[in-house]
Amino acid sequence: MKRIRVGIIGQGRSGRNIHRYLIDTHKDLHEMFELVGVADPIAERRQFPDAISVSPDFKEYDNYKDMLKDKSIDLIINSTRSMDHVPVSIEAMEAGFNVLCEKPLCISHGEIDAILRAEERSSAYLGVCLQNRYNPANRFAKEYLEDKKVSAAVAETWPGCIVSPYLMVQCSDSRHYGRISDKVYRFSAMDLTAQERRSIRGNNE
């Protein structure tokens, strides 16, 4: 079976420590995907000594635009900063690459329309890394909120408030909601120590 040739843009937390780590260290994934390039302006981030093996075609790029010149790549993983997800994904699709974009896909409603139009115009496919929606804890949270009890209880204090069925360790991704509202409150279902709570990033800590 031909391996899917992958290029990863961005070698921060998700690009290097999740996507690259999984492709380069898990045997099953390594047999399905061939990492042929990574792009990041910081040279140290592009280093990864723990790979099972390195593709003979592997290249490092300090500018992702140079990676997009390699038409042998089958899939671009966009692990750039959240604010760059839309423009970089659109640029990659316009260049003919299938794209898997890290979350959040967009940080405004207008960007959603723009990126979906770009996918329609291109011959490429766009995917979004939203694997957490299938986690048992998240599925439970969604079902729990759908019975309206939590929404009704919150509405008693904050009428008109939107209750979003989203659950993750430390609720740290609530920082993305802060872009559309200055009143974001987090209800953590986790039993955290004071030290762990101090490590939480985002709004209303």
Could you describe the 3D structure shown?
It contains eight helices and six strands, in the order E-H-H-E-E-H-E-H-E-H-E-H-H-H. The chain has helices spanning 13-25, 27-32, 64-67, 85-94, 109-121, 136-146, 149-157, 194-198; strands at residues 4-9, 33-39, 59-61, 75-78, 98-101, 126-128. A six-stranded parallel β-sheet has the order 3-2-1-4-5-6, sandwiched between helices. It starts with a strand and ends in a 7-residue tail after the last helix.
Proportion of beta-strand residues: 5-15%
Q: What gross morphology would you assign?
A: globular
Let me know the largest β-sheet.
6 strands, parallel
Radius of gyration: 19 Å
Q: How many extended strands?
A: 6
Provide keyphrases for this structure.
single chain; 205 residues; alpha/beta; 8 helices; 35% helix
Quick summary of this structure?
With 205 residues, the protein is an alpha/beta fold. It is built from eight helices and six strands. It has a six-stranded parallel beta sheet, with helices on both faces.
Topology:
Elements lengths: L3 E6 L3 H13 L1 H6 E7 L19 E3 L2 H4 L7 E4 L6 H10 L3 E4 L7 H13 L4 E3 L7 H11 L2 H9 L36 H5 L7
Parallel strand pairs: 1-2, 1-4, 2-3, 4-5, 5-6
Helix pairs in contact: 4-5
